[in-house]
Amino acid sequence: MRTLLPIFIPIITLLGCSSQLLENEVSSQIFDSWCDYAVAGQADNVTQDCIDNANQGDEDAATNLAYLYAKGMLVEQDIHRAMDLYRVAAEKGMPEAQYSLAEMYRSGKVGKANPKLARYWYQQLASQPIDMQFSRYQVDAQFMLGLMYFEGQGGAVDLNSAEHWLKQSSDNGHKEAPYILGQLYLEQYHNPQQALDWYKVSADRKFAPAMHQIGMIYVNGQLGEVEVVKADFWLQQAAALGLAEAQVDLATLEYNHRDDEADLIKIYIWLAAAKHQGNEIAANRLQMISQKLSQPQLNQAQALSLHCIQSLFQQCQAATLLP
């Protein structure tokens, strides 16, 4: 998609003019023939020039018009037409169109999903030198390609290719790619230390599932022995980012791994947080914990839980919430 040109200078220049001719000139500068402004939500119509250019194979116009059809912006939504236009632009090397086309094949938005063609178009995009204008599409394509090789979507499982593309994506800053690399090393190579190293890269990029996995490595003693303090630290990080599974496991850690009596109010708070997000395991366990609390304790736990949820899980420690 073309970069939007600044419109302020020509508008300022023409502020003192009132003729219809000059107004039309301003309009033609704003609503350009490649539909950039239509895509940006700054136009109230799709120009005939945009349609003509797209039909003649201009990759910018085709990509923009495809986007409008896909979203139903200023035109009636038509996913088939969007896919046809994306294909025109993708075959001419337009990165945004290649990524969008791959996503449409993967998701099956038009008919049955076709992971083989999705993998093909991810590969076309991922293999290109990084272009800063389109880097986010390319880095995501590298990630998706690695994930598809890892899971065997669109072809056989290929761990070497999966590792290659996931590392490429991770090197370019993708936050989930190192998490999947951690899964690969843990589940396929059975190397928890290398998995931990990759999870920490993802955790540094604030990816909550990676923090959760680090916590579970320490909970399960996969590096030699159970390390409750480290497990609690990492599960707390994931729970504070709103990951319901981490909130449940944090409550479970408190219940099962305390040398003294477990803090039932703390357990209640995290289970209530997870239940609030629709976690059924949390809902079932919350009933059990509620029965173990006195009425004053239950009242306090409910008040603290509400505060935890309203703070978006940032203030969920009972000790810091007591008046």
Account of the protein in words:
By secondary structure, the protein is mainly alpha-helical. The chain has four domains: 1-92, no CATH class; 105-174; 175-241, Serine Threonine Protein Phosphatase 5, Tetratricopeptide repeat, CATH 1.25.40; 250-323, no CATH class. It is 68% helix and 0% strand. The protein has 19 helices and no strands. The longest helix is centred in the middle third of the chain and has 17 residues, at 135-151. It is elongated, with a radius of gyration of 26 Å. Mean pLDDT is 88; it is low at 2-30 and 319-323.
- The total count of helices amounts to 19
Mean pLDDT: 88
What form results from the Cα inertia axes?
elongated
How many DSSP E strands?
Answer: 0
Q: The biggest beta sheet, please?
A: none
- Low-confidence runs (pLDDT<50, min 5 residues)? 2-30, 319-323
Distance between the termini: 55 Å
Tell me the fraction of residues in β-strands, as a range: under 5%
- Summing up helix and strand content along with how strands pair, one would put the structural category as mainly alpha
**Could you tell me the radius of gyration in angstroms?**
26 Å
Secondary-structure element series: HHHHHHHHHHHHHHHHHHH
Percent range of helical residues: 55-70%
Domain tally = 4
